[in-house]
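User: Run a structure prediction on this.
Assistant: Running it now.
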Amino acid sequence: DGGLKWVTRTGGASGPPAISGDGSIFVATDNRILALAPDGTVRWQFDDPDSQGTVAGPNLGPDGNLYVVDDLFGLGAFSLSQTGALLWSHPGNPLFTEYAQTGTEIVFSPLPAGPSFQLYFGLDEYSVSAPTVFGLGLDGRQMWARQAGISNDPFMQQQQQIAVGPGGTIYVTSLSSS
């Protein structure tokens, strides 16, 4: 009915929350991931103290784990169990950089040759690096990185967004006025 159920002060969220089947809520705030119970109490937090903040995720993968991409000087892409244990991290090649811009979703798609999945996200930092879409396995191996589109957002507030269509085709949006 639109009534407020609870509020948990986190210091500001970065991107959308992820919700698990048991009602747990996972949010990124600056350089930390918080797990909240369905009543809003904090269950655990995971800190990446060297990061400038989360730029993609958190998103729950098909395996039930959390996937996150932190900015320059942090862990890069990483996965956490639903209890907050670090499963793997990868800095990216090229390095995952957005200088703390937020809002990119991580999407998942089954690989065409089997039951394995791949995750995708895009980073498009204006004047720092070319807009790039990354594909990683759920084990953290970087499968590929490809330039996609152009970005000329002088305020660096917009993000590439990724969607995967039928057959595994990846669709990418990016901001460009030309």
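The mean pLDDT is 84.
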